[in-house]
Specification:
single chain, globular, mainly alpha, 507 residues
Length: 507
């Protein structure tokens, strides 16, 4: 089972990394076509609903509450009963989502006001956001099916399809941005590209569902015990698994009050900071969940603890250098990625300081994903829910305090601080349940020391490459720094070069 977790992690990481590459191309083109102003603010607010729903559902609540129960039914009963269970879940979720969409279309202006109250000062941005949101929200029922179908495939050990589906959304947005830039098409096309991508994603997943001989139907839901179990877990899981997304939503709401373009600054910074979270945090959490669920059924505590601790060390190995890189060279990263078209020098500076604030919290963001999988594998959604309430409360208080002095930078910084406090809560509770121990402290201290050294190395490399072309210097900086970091990992024996299957070890 250990090998299965590792293979699943590598598989999911690869496709997630590929998706994020397409995502960066998407963001570069959106930045070039929309810039960082009222129009981009309007689109990002409108896109917030489906994007947050995707992160909560496809990467969070639905998977976390549905998958352990589906795995349990399949293991203890039969494949037919697990498929019947999945059909019931997807049917009831579709029913509620369709009701929500009808109400949202009617009251969309009130929803946008709730997401961005500061827009009330800018009539054009407000009306454009409402217009965009009415198109993008059609994506929600498709997302629910994508989450269910992807979870079923993950239970069968097929991680590639669900990891690859975001690529389709990114390609759709890329094409829309190109049409706006080259053919001067209406900006509204970028909003229409979102539900179009949803249709294509369903077709893509349907192929793999059929290939696995899995039959899921839209039915009149049956009120079975197992179904009720998922529904009762879903709402606390939604809040627990999506605490970062809830905090980012808080950031958006408060940013609309701070001033023009603040939403865009935080969005672009969040997109870059989400790269290590998606490739490492989500990948580790996704790979762990089905295997930990099976281990919990057999009460294999030692196996669970070992794999959570190893996953944490893997997470620290990637998150710590990412954190220090975002602190050391945020401006050159933003300039190299986004500085095109309507994206101006002021935008570069403002996005870079927001990135440094979000970057500070990356180790916490990733570790939380790993800890959450342990609780969800135990069918415990209430504890993550309670921790998340604490996290969001702290984030709101800190954001309000810090934004008064630091503006949008203070909002991003508050999110990172709140995440570390959340991480401490998870560690204490899991330690009490013997799912994690203080064994991780020694490798963490070593990695933090190496991270500080890495921070100063980046400055030296930056001074060496400062006279080169921006893109060339950025490529060299990333390539050489990666070689240096992974060489250090080999020297300090975090990476075993003689065994790929056991590449990560705890000292």
């Amino acid at each position: 089972m250990k090998n299965l977790i590792f293979k699943a992690f590598i598989n999911f990481s690869f496709w997630t990394a590929l998706s994020r590459i397409f995502g960066f191309v998407r963001d570069v083109l959106i930045a070039a076509s929309l810039g960082a102003g009222p129009l981009s603010d309007a689109f990002f607010v409108a896109f917030k609903l489906p994007n947050m729903f995707r992160r909560l559902v496809a990467e969070g609540a639905l998977v976390q509450s549905f998958l352990p129960t589906f795995t349990y039914i399949e293991k203890t009963q039969s494949k037919q009963q697990s498929e019947e269970f999945a059909s019931n879940v997807q049917s009831i979720i579709l029913f509620y989502i369709l009701i929500f969409i009808i109400l949202a279309e009617i009251f969309m202006s009130y929803i946008i006001f709730g997401l961005a109250p500061g827009f009330i000062k800018n009539t054009e941005a407000f009306e454009t956001a409402v217009f965009f949101a009415r198109a993008t929200i059609i994506y929600l029922p498709m997302l629910s099916l994508i989450a269910i179908w992807g979870s079923v495939l993950q239970s069968s050990g097929k991680f590639m399809p669900s990891a690859a589906t975001p690529i389709i959304l990114n390609i759709s947005l890329i094409i829309a941005s190109i049409l706006i830039l080259t053919l001067k098409q209406s900006d509204f096309i970028i909003a229409l590209s979102v539900p179009l991508a949803g249709i294509l994603q369903l077709i893509f997943l349907f192929y793999f569902i059929k290939k696995q001989n899995i039959f899921l139907k839209i039915v009149i839901p049956k009120k079975t015990f197992d179904y009720h179990g998922v529904w009762k877990k879903f709402l606390p899981a939604a809040f627990g698994a999506g605490v970062l997304q809830v905090n980012l939503l808080v950031d958006t709401i408060l940013a609309s009050i701070v001033g023009a373009s603040s939403i865009s600054y935080l969005y672009y910074a969040d997109r870059l900071s989400q790269l290590p979270l998606g490739i490492i945090g989500v990948a580790l959490g996704t790979a762990l969940l089905p295997n930990l669920s099976k281990a919990e059924t057999s009460n294999e505590i030692i196996f669970i603890r070992e794999n959570i601790e190893k996953s944490l060390v893997v997470g620290f190995m990637f998150s710590i250098p990412s954190c220090f890189a975002f602190l050391a060279i945020p401006e050159i990263l933003i300039e190299g990625i986004y500085a095109r078209g309507a994206f101006e020098k002021t935008d570069i500076y403002n996005v870079s300081i927001a990135l440094s604030a979000y970057g500070l919290g990356i180790p916490a963001f990733i570790s939380i994903k790993i800890f959450q999988s342990s609780f969800f594998a135990m069918h415990n959604t209430l504890t993550p829910f309670r921790i998340s309430i604490f996290s969001v409360t702290i984030n709101i208080v800190l954001s309000i305090l810090l934004m008064q002095k630091f503006g949008f930078y203070g909002i991003a910084l508050a999110t990172s601080i709140a995440s570390y406090l959340t991480l401490i809560c998870y560690f204490i509770l899991l330690n009490s349940k013997q799912r994690v121990s203080f064994n991780i402290m020694k490798p963490l201290i070593i990695l933090l020391f190496l991270g500080f050294c890495f921070y100063f190395i980046l400055f030296e490399l930056l001074s060496i490459f400062k006279n080169l072309n921006l893109i060339l210097s950025l490529i060299l900086l990333i390539f050489i720094s990666m070689i240096i970091w992974f060489s250090a990992m080999i020297v300090f024996r975090f990476i075993k070069i003689n065994s790929i299957k056991n590449i990560f070890i705890i000292r």
